[in-house]
Fold this protein.
Amino acid sequence: MKLLDVVALLEDLPKLGLYRGQVGTIVEEYEPDVFEVEFSDMSGRAYALETLSVVQLMKLYYQPIAENASIPGVQGIQREHRNSITVSL
């Protein structure tokens, strides 16, 4: 993941008011695999800005990804369940 990637939250963080599936944008990288993510509403107003680990996030793609596609930084993709993807880094 890198600056300006669009990501989805993979876990509920109720103390922060954030829940699985909410979409944000990486706005800063503090160290490898630690990012500041901004969550905004449909009008573009930020409602949360949190420091999160790569294991809490999933990068979103806006194009089809073939079974054997090469994605920068990803060695392989395995489909485990209908709604989830396991990525090997």
